[in-house]
Specification:
Blueprint: H1 9-12, E1 16-20, E2 32-37, H2 42-54, E3 59-62, E4 68-69, E5 75-81, E6 91-93, E7 96-100, H3 105-114, E8 117-118, H4 130-135, E9 139-140, E10 143-144, E11 149-155, E12 161-165, E13 182-189, E14 191-192, H5 195-210, E15 220-221, H6 232-238, E16 245-246, E17 249-251, E18 259-261, H7 267-285, E19 294-295
Parallel strand pairs: 2-5, 3-5, 4-19
Antiparallel strand pairs: 1-2, 6-7, 7-13, 8-14, 9-10, 11-12, 11-13, 15-18, 16-17, 17-18
EC number: 1.3.1.98
Cofactor: FAD
Pathway: Cell wall biogenesis; peptidoglycan biosynthesis
Amino acid sequence: MTFPDELSAEIAALIRTDEPLGPLLWLGIGGPAHYFSQPSTVDELKQVVSAANDAGLPVRVLGSGSNVLVRESGVDGLVISLASLPGQEPTVDGSTMTALAGTKLSTAVIESVGAGLGGLEHLIGIPGTIGGAVVGNVSAGGRDIGSVVHKVTVLEKDGSLRVLGAEEVGFSHRKSSLTGLIVYSVTFSLEPRDAAELTKRMQKLWISRNSTRPDEERRIAMPFIDPDSMPVRELIASVGLSGSREGEVSLDANRPSYMVAHPGATSDQCLKLIERVREQVLLQTGIDLQLNLQIW
């Protein structure tokens, strides 16, 4: 499916074709988007989503690119980046905080801590955006982000906005019912606490989390979700797969929960390594590793 030739000049100007996605992803690899748009206003966002719906095109939203792997063949349909939308700074109102989906998760955490609001500080240092974090119900320290969500505003296919209360969003372990929807913004219900104490806790967690990452800052990804039984890094190490390699892609030898894309790496190599690790872990432990990466 394609956009019609008679697409208005106003909307056509917002859409690029065969846009390389690799530079927008942490892994730095992958094919192009058939159609790509990076709207700079809410009206532009509504227009391109509505136009894609009218054309019968699937729509995907790209956040920070930290947990996306794009196949070499690329992505059909329309990929939208929210990075250029205004108002990325979270707004605080009493004990609630609202952030646009494209806001970096760490930005929202720092803002909440500075306002003396607790409930997000344990997520400091986790890559990604608010939208991706809520859709995937990201968790750390046994607490997930869904537990402090008050409401979620989603963009409908016709360009209208719809508000979902927390009770309407099905949160479970690293999942939510928001998958496939376009999240526009999220409002959190947080707990007033001492800002200085929250800052100390946040800084301690930041140092600890940062020390467990490989040196490669951008060409890394965490392909698997921690199972309930043990951290995935320990599980992979226990079956002797630390440092496993497929072409120019490897699991970090010291921190095997991370996958590293070396120069010359391809998406196909990533997929082969992921499948090999899953097969061996299942064979040796009976645990079926679930993917943290979205495969496009």
